[in-house]
Amino acid sequence: MTPSMSSQYQAALDAGKFEIQRCKACQQAIFYPRELCPHCGSDQLAWEQPSGKGTVYSTTVIRRKPDAGGDYNVALIDLAEGPRMMSRVEGVAPAEVKIGMAVQAEVVQQGGKGLVVFKAA
Questions:
Q1: In angstroms, rounded to a whole number, what is the distance separating the alpha carbons of residues 38 and 70?
Q2: Theoretical Cys-Cys bridge with 53: which of 36, 74, 80, 105, CB 3.0 to 4.6 Å?
Q3: Would you say 88 and 115 are in contact if contact means Cβ atoms under 8 Å apart?
Q4: SS3 string of the chain?
Q5: Residue 7: φ, ψ to 5°
Q6: pTM of the model
């Protein structure tokens, strides 16, 4: 990903907006941001705000000592638009996140930067 794509994506997150790309040539939704469509090779990519709806494809619990912040979840989420992304599911115990669980994206601020996380839907 070029610095310009990276900075555009992060700037939208910092402003509280989650955006993905869509190819104008083949209409495929794309995530992680790119210069060229991985499906057809077109450079006709546009930014759009996805529905934020998703489904947990895979999940794991990262174990940490309580004084280091405790356990947390890492999950692969299939977005309703098609792409899959890595994030975490918040608001439920890490071990309670299950494959097939419906989730909804939310942009949160962490360390002064926007970040996409998911909540159980």
A1: 38
A2: 80
A3: no
A4: CCHHHHHHHHHHHHCCCCCEEEECCCCCEECCCCCCCCCCCCCCEEEECCCCEEEEEEEEEECCCHHHCCCEEEEEEEECCCCEEEECEECCCHHHCCCCCEEEEEEEEECCEEEEEEEEC
A5: -70, -35
A6: 0.88
Pairing of β 53-62 and β 89-90: unpaired
For 57-79, write each residue's pLDDT tens digit. 999 999 999 999 899 999 999 99
CB 18 within 8 A of CB 105: yes
For the record, the structure tokens of 71 come out as: 């356990």
Greatest pairwise CA separation for the chain in angstroms: 50
Q: What is the token pair recorded at 41?
A: 């090779």
Residue 115 CA to residue 44 CA, distance in Å, equals: 26
- Taking the C-alpha atoms of residue 54 and residue 74, their distance in angstroms, rounded to an integer, is 14
**Each residue's pLDDT tens digit, 28-46:** 999 999 999 999 999 999 9
Q: Which is nearest to 103 in space by CA: 71, 81, 80, 83?
A: 80
